[in-house]
Design brief:
Length: 291
């Protein structure tokens, strides 16, 4: 196959691993910076121009689209789809997963367990928002935040109302979410490929840190999911239409609760924690679908 990895940095761990895995299985691979692609739209003749030539005879693409460039990255994926190229993550699924509010609504409708969440249009009744998620402590998240940025733990009612009023004054979109104390600053990431959980890790935040993101200094260890956790991860992935996903869940007294479904999950943390060749599984997923 001829495979294109859409990535802005060929030196990133995930991009390098996918490149190595594809070449090892005998495929021709190139890394393409999606922001440098020109999209040519014409009736029955969609084209993509990149670095002096048209990208032609491509069998499959693996999007590694950063959250800050979702709009253009999605347009490039959509153009490849118009060219009848298989995408490991569809343009529609990427858009659904990147819209935090919309994705939570889709997951709730599908019957997926979630922490209680409230979103408002800059309401002045911030005290009611706090009460609606069970009071303090609670989590406040910017809708545009990634990798633990834009996430605040408000430990008291006064702190929560002050932060909400400040965000509202700045015109920043924010959601309030109940704090799951029993999770103990840890979460689970289940890595799903083609309707199967192929690896899972537990991420623990460093001392005094409620966020478990590895980018924030957390550590990861391999974990065996319960049946309920596995079912939840698969149901969440299916609801958003994703072929590849990292499903982040909290272990709670109410069962697994989904925090987020990531459509471009990093490979380094999960491969190191589990010792599994996740990149190889992604290439095999392409092979099965292109054939």
């Amino acid at each position: 196959m001829r495979i294109v990895i859409l990535s802005r940095n060929p030196r990133l761990y995930s991009t390098k691993r996918l490149l190595e895995a594809a070449e090892k299985r005998g495929h021709e691979v190139m890394v393409v910076d999606h922001l440098k692609c020109n999209i040519e739209i014409e009736k029955k003749s969609p084209k993509i121009f990149y670095k002096g030539e048209y990208l032609e005879n491509i069998d499959a693409i693996i999007p590694r689209i950063g959250a800050s460039v979702t709009f253009y990255g999605t347009a490039v994926i959509r153009q490849f789809e118009m060219m009848k190229v298989f995408s490991a993550v569809s343009s529609q699924a990427l858009v659904k997963s990147r819209d935090k509010l919309s994705s939570l609504q889709i997951l709730a409708r599908a019957g997926v367990g979630l922490p209680k969440t409230v979103f408002t249009n800059y309401t002045k009744d911030v005290e009611h928002v706090v009460e609606s998620v069970g009071g303090a402590p609670l989590i406040l998240k910017l809708l545009e935040g990634t990798q633990g940025l834009g996430v605040v733990l408000a430990e008291t009612k006064n702190a929560a109302t002050s932060v909400l009023e400040a965000f509202n004054g700045l015109g920043a979109r924010v959601i309030a979410q109940e704090f799951i104390k029993e999770a103990g600053g840890a979460d689970i990431r289940a890595f799903v490929v083609d309707g199967k959980v192929i690896g899972a890790m537990k991420r623990q935040g460093k001392d005094g840190e409620f966020r478990s993101n590895l980018h924030r200094g957390g550590n990861a260890t391999i974990i065996e999911l319960t049946d309920e956790e596995e079912k939840t991860a698969l149901k969440a992935t299916k609801a958003l239409g994703l072929g590849i996903a990292g499903v982040d869940m909290l272990q709670s007294s109410k069962g697994p609760l989904v925090l987020e479904v990531n459509s471009s999950p990093g490979l380094e943390g999960i491969e190191v924690a589990t010792g599994k060749n996740i990149a190889k599984e992604i290439i095999r997923y392409l092979e099965l679908n292109v054939e």
